[in-house]
Amino acid sequence: MSIPRIPFCIAIAAALSMPLVAQQAPIGYHHIQCVKVNPGQETAFENYVAGPVQKLNQSMVDSGTYAQSLVLRTRMPRGTEAECDYVFVTFYKGLPDAGMSSEELSKALHNADIPMTAEAIHTTQAEIGKLVNENITQYQSLVGGAKKGDYLVFNSMSAPNVSSCVAAQKKTWQPVAEEMVKSGNLDGWAVNEQVFPRGSKDSNAVSSVDIYPNWEAFTKEYSSIQSAWKKVHPDMDINNTMEQFGKLCTIEHTVLYNVVQITSPAK
Hints:
The structure is a single chain. By secondary structure, the protein is an alpha+beta fold. The chain has 2 domains: 18-137, Alpha-Beta Plaits, CATH 3.30.70.100; 139-257, Alpha-Beta Plaits (2-Layer Sandwich), CATH 3.30.70. It is 35% helix and 29% strand. The protein has an 8-stranded antiparallel beta barrel with strand order 1-3-2-8-5-7-6-4. 36% of the residues are buried.
């Protein structure tokens, strides 16, 4: 199994295009890693997440290297056919950095009071899991935010024109999300654009995220959407709008996650 030179949920080196680098005050960049747990290593993986991962993330956030981090566990679909068992998301205040060498990682582990070397981290993750894929994404619009215990719906989309899809998301769904957050039926919402990789065969050109405060709120999703829609789009027929929306953004795959860990700056 091939393991990258850095552990799960730590930044990778990324080749970003010149137009993106040239942006002023870039925000909203986050690095996403999809990980599959090795058979029989479920408990060991949980302990790894609750121990070294949490301590290192907190240290990196407190130092300002990360803006925030999330650990998500797949709820549906699960099992051998699920692409990811866990997803690690690392947020940055600007562009992602170039990653850490083994020496830098060992120093970071020491600063986080974790009695492990970079080599030990690599050995541990090779035993318990496998990196399936990773990407760098940038949110184009964000409402609210996540907390531990939330249920997060991730919608992967294809789009003939990414800009048009993102614009439609902001016009149609952002007001609905804002109303649902106001009413307590939603904790957060975002629409994202994948930055790298970004070829014609790369999935998730656009994605949206719906963050529910609890299981009950998730199960009442459709009634909550209908109620919010009537308030913010009283003159728009939801069925006709969705038909037109589907021509700009096509949901290819949806996954339900549980937020098992969130790391923010210590207060």
